[in-house]
User: Fold this.
Amino acid sequence: MKIRQHPRMKDIALGDEVLCYRTNLYALVEEVFPAAVCVKLMTFDRRRKRFVLSPQLWRAEEIENLSVCRYCGSRDGLTMENGTLVPQRICFTCRSVLDHATDFLTTTTDR
Assistant:
């Protein structure tokens, strides 16, 4: 039986910032698997009374890669997209297309 890669995992690399929808937590990718990523979160160990790094596996269905453009998947020229609670990133090309589309729609509806 061949292991197939989940479609969301094709653009995820080590060091990418991901968001887990289930827990609403952000973390950096430590390891990439065909259908999950391994991240390390800082948690408080009550028994030892200190913070420790705890590895967790997040499933591909539960994560969003925040290190690529949300529209085209590019990693070049990224800026933060304002107006959303999730810190999505958008590349310069997609930003200019969206700005032109917004300008067009506002000018045609104002007539």
